[in-house]
Amino acid sequence: MPQSLDAAHPVPPPAPAAAMLKALFRRSEIPLLISLLVVIAFFSIASDTFLTTRNIANVLGQSALAMTAGIGVAIVFISGEVDVSVGSLVAAVAIPLIVVMNATESLFLGIAAALALGLVVGAVNGYLSAYLGINSLIVTLGTLFILRGGVYLYTGQTAIPDEAMLESFFQIGNGRLLGLLPYPALIAFVLLLAFAYVMRHRPFGRQVYAVGGNPEVARLAGYSVKRVKFACFIISGLLATVAGIMLASRLGSAVHVAGLGFEFQVVAAVVLGGVSLSGGIGSLFGMALGVLILSFLSNGLGMLALATEWQLVVTGGIIIAAVAFDEFKRRRI
Amino acid sequence: MTSESLSSTRKPGTAFGLFADRSQIVLIGILAALCIAISLAAPQFYSEANVIAILRQCALVLIVAAGMTMLLICGEVDLSVGASLAFVGCIGMDVINRTGSLTLGVLAALAFAGTVGLFNGIVATRLRVNSLIGTIATMMMLQGGVFLYTREAVQNHHHLPSFTGLGAGYIGPLPIPVIIAAIVFVVAFVALRYTTFGRYLYAVGASENAARLSGLRAERLKLIAFVVTGLLVGVAGMILASLMNAGQPTAGRGFELTVIAAVILGGTSLSGGRGTLIGTLLGVLVLKVIDNGIIILRWNQDLQMVVPGIVIILATWLDIVRRRADAR
């Protein structure tokens, strides 16, 4: 339990660099960081092309989708609820985005339409879970089905191509900062830093930890449990929308099968990152490390010319090993 | 919570009370409303052929859902059933092709599926990996593994009539899969309600610590539930392979979500300790009647995803409303 206290009341890092470093090493992200470094070290030795700036930048770009959606899913988990609807939402938001852009030739209006859908889905998930008290796994499983079915119905099971061909839209998913770092990675990191700051240093973040850790105590402390959870679902909906926009830009169309199984990928990364399913425990940096470990693994295994099937087998094994090790360590303490 | 977990699992007395209690009223109501609405719009809904078609559709889901209900009751979950279902079909078909023996094929399928269940159980109980993530990992391994095992569908080269009978045969008026599902259902129902094993599962799910302090071996009970679920996936996988007349590595995508949706629609709690097999049966029936209705009304088949999504949310909400009304 000391870990939960640590997560719920993070010590604000003092200014001097040495003290900051010391505070950093007490945190639970360190084993994850070491795992990530081991993965990177292993593949750097095993493959010549792995540890190049270009490849690292590519992996960061590939991890951006799971990281962006993962921020929202992790926040919902910390608040003690679950959101699995992101897998369908990333595909669903591409439809208003592409349709509005095709009609108006305006990237701004397209993104606004996509965000509006994400907002509505987040609000529906949040209202049903927080205010009506329906189990959030059931709610978001339901919206996962409804959205995917809705996408199939609207598109007739084909992709809707982007006919506006806006350069700015193309750049979102495919452009690179200084010709190196993909924009999706940049967007994901900015969002990660912003939300990590909110979760650690703003009242809202503290409320989320409090509500997830012990809703009764949070209520007695004067927090509106329902409103906090509602807000978490909206954040998750909006962040999944951002991921969906980046995916649509990369694919150049609204693809009806986009994001199939994405929810499993995100949940695996979030839990691997140490975010507890029972709420109140975990950090966004842990989640980010979980995403990076899985992304570097998949990239490295690909570099070793290992078939995609083997990648799945090895990744599955590593997830079990990592979580089992984490549990083992926790019980020893 | 405690009183509710008791009342929803055991309320002896009337004959109705034996099979269903108040918590199932909502589902029975939804099922009745669906049947009436569909039969008004399409009279052929009640034809013998259609009823049997619905039952056949239910059979596969119900077989696996019986195991999943036990798992959820003891507080665990298995997301690898869909991936395992496909793998089992490929292995069973391959073994029959090589040996020409249905028995060996079924045994191989059961052995494989049971091992997957055992693996999941060991990961969840000994390594203490949360089963939600542990079985996602198993799902990934099985999805990768099945393509390593076979690149394409394992075709039927043996043409055994008994194998085809497994999925498509009849005993009297009833299809064999329906009979198998009925047997599985009755055995699981009795095991959960009338044996100490079943009572212990509820106890472990409701409070693992309390159960352990009263001397129950929680880990072993959970392990058994995982293995039972695995074996039932083996049964379902062979029936599916027989129905498709091939072992399809891509079969079973999303099957785990259908099974879990049916079980939680039936009122089984995700946090453990609460749930009934009657509820699961009703949940499976509701989902499959919806599927069938969409087909015979000639609606767009993509609605087969949308409508169940709405129904599971609606049913859970109505159940909450009913419970609040009961509490007053």
From TrEMBL, chain A:
Keywords, alphabetical: Cell inner membrane, Cell membrane, Membrane, Sugar transport, Transmembrane, Transmembrane helix, Transport
Primary location group: membrane
Membrane-topology annotation of the record: Multi-pass membrane protein
A cellular component term, taken from the record's GO annotations: plasma membrane
CDD domains referenced in this protein's UniProt entry, alphabetically: TM_PBP1_transp_AraH_like (cd06579)
Molecular function, one GO term: transmembrane transporter activity
InterPro entries in the cross-refs: ABC_transp_permease
Transmembrane recorded as keyword: yes
UniProt-listed Pfam families: BPD_transp_2 (PF02653)
Protein's cellular compartments: Cell membrane
Regions that span the bilayer: 30-47, 59-77, 84-101, 107-128, 135-155, 175-198, 228-248, 254-277, 310-328
Keyword Transmembrane: yes
Chain's role: Part of the binding-protein-dependent transport system for D-xylose. Probably responsible for the translocation of the substrate across the membrane.
Protein name: Xylose transport system permease protein XylH
From TrEMBL, chain B:
Keyword Cell membrane: yes
Ranges annotated as spanning the membrane: 25-46, 52-72, 102-122, 129-150, 170-192, 223-244, 250-270, 277-297, 303-321
Gene Ontology MF: a single term: transmembrane transporter activity
Membrane topology note: Multi-pass membrane protein
Record keywords, A-Z: Cell membrane, Membrane, Transmembrane, Transmembrane helix
Signal peptide segment: none
Protein name in the entry: ABC transporter permease
Organism: Kumtagia ephedrae
Species classification: Bacteria, Pseudomonadati, Pseudomonadota, Alphaproteobacteria, Hyphomicrobiales
